Amino acid sequence: MSPRKIASAVIATVWFWPAFACESPYTFGDCGGTDDCYEGAQNIPGTICKDNQCKCQIPDQVICCHFREVDNPDCKRACRYCWDCSEGTKGCEDVEVECRLPSDCPTKPGGVCEFGPACAFGKCDYLALGGDAKTQKLGDCERRYCLSGGGIEVIPDLGDIEDDGNDCTIDQCWEAGPTHEARPDGSGCAGGRGYCIAGKCVECMYQSDCATTEVEVCSKHKCVPSTCIDDLRSGAETDIDCGGPCAPCDDEKKCVEDADCGSGACTGGKCAAPTTSDGRANGTETGVDCGGPDAKPCGDGARCAVHADCSSDVCLNSTCQAPSCRDGTKNGKETGVDCGGDCSIACE
Fold first, then answer.
1. Which single residue of 186, 276, 345, 347 has CA 20 to 30 Å from 169?
2. What is the pLDDT of residue 148?
3. 3-state SS track over the chain
4. How many angstroms separate the CA atoms of 106 and 256, rounded?
5. Residue 36 scores a pLDDT above 50
């Protein structure tokens, strides 16, 4: 036999001879004569030969079939972590595995945002799903949006208009928030009765607006007896041409009761300017000494026009609402918007 043929035969013998010696990392053949690393026609990936036994090279991994293929008699064994192996796998007895699939995880209690279950490294986790937050504040011109990566973004919503309950204002949203602009003077009030003047509904603008034009006149936008414009104090008037059946009196004019005064405050027989401590709902206030731009916010149940009139920062149907865990507002004892404090939902 020629030298070239002898060399070819030696190479062929070495290439096809089973590898009984330990190789590290293990890639082919048996390991010390055992069948741990070689089954039929497959090797077990990730193993090394140690103490004449095939073992996983990465600590905490064991040799197993993937849990999705455990019922397949031809499943491919490999080095895997216990959460990728089926329950009861040898070597995983003391390893706590919460889940192998997201469906193994319990539903997360409802929060402001929706969360979907996820299973990572044998532990249950929850991923925030995008979409509108479950609780929104009505009429703040904003929308709270849950980000898919977690957290909440507040974005403008020009359709979330705050209704101040006033027919003589135009309610709309701007980038700065809700606005309530007075309608042009002379605009009709709701139902076609009266006119808008300086953002308030009044009874009349013209003499013809008064029903009994023979005995009534339009004075200070109110239909009153004709004696209310004779420059005399007559009848039930509390001062000249004001009070009683006439239009309310100005400050410092004589009065008998609050209704005699334009300020709504009759003090010591004279009409007084409204204050935020006079025990009345007058001036720009929406409630008694509360609400409006000048007084403190009102408590629950008081009359209001906008959210800012209320200590809870929630005005619905012209009434200040008590704080709740679903009003889209951080109020009461909450530590976040509708979470923490007395709410059952923990803040993220």
1. 276
2. 85
3. CCHHHHHHHHHHHHHHCCCCCCCCCCCCCCECCECCCEECCEECCCEEEECCEEEECCCCEEEECEHHHCCCCCCCCEEEEHHHECCCCCCCCCCCCCCCCHHHCCCCCCCCCCEEEEEECCEEEEEECCEECCCCCCCCCEEEEECCCCCEEEEECCCCCCCCCCCCEEEEEECCEEEEEECCCCCECHHHCCEEECCEEECCCCHHHCCCCCCEEEECCEEEEHHHHCCCCCCCCCECCECCCCCCECCCCECCCHHHECCCCEECCEECCCCCCCCCCCCCCCECCECCCCCECECCCCECCCHHHECCCCEECCEECCCCCCCCCCCCCCCECCECCCCCCCCC
4. 70
5. no
The answer to whether the CB of 158 falls within 8 A of the CB of 175 is no
Where are the domains positioned within the chain? 3-84, 98-160, 286-348
Please give the Cα distance from 137 to 197 (Å, whole number). 31
> Which pair of tokens denotes residue 115?
């969360």
Q: Average pLDDT for residues 336-347, to the nearest whole number?
A: 89
Q: How confident is the model at residue 50 (pLDDT cuts 50, 70, 90)?
A: confident
* Residue labelled with tokens 């509108």: 132
CA-closest candidate to residue 179, choices 194, 169, 191, 190: 169
Q: In angstroms, how far is CA 275 from the centroid of its own chain? A: 37
CB 321 within 8 A of CB 329: no
Looking up tokens 């796998």 gives: 89
* pLDDT, tens digit, 9 for 90 and up, residues 258-317: 999 999 999 999 999 999 999 999 999 999 999 999 999 999 999 999 999 999 999 999
**Owner of token pair 């109020």:** 331
Asked if 112 contacts 133 with a C-beta cutoff of 8 angstroms, the reply is: yes
User: CA 171 to CA 155: how far, in whole Å?
Assistant: 19
State the residue for tokens 């995983």: 92
Instruction: For the chain, give the mean pLDDT.
Output: 85
Length of the chain counted residue by residue: 348
CA distance 182 to 196: 8
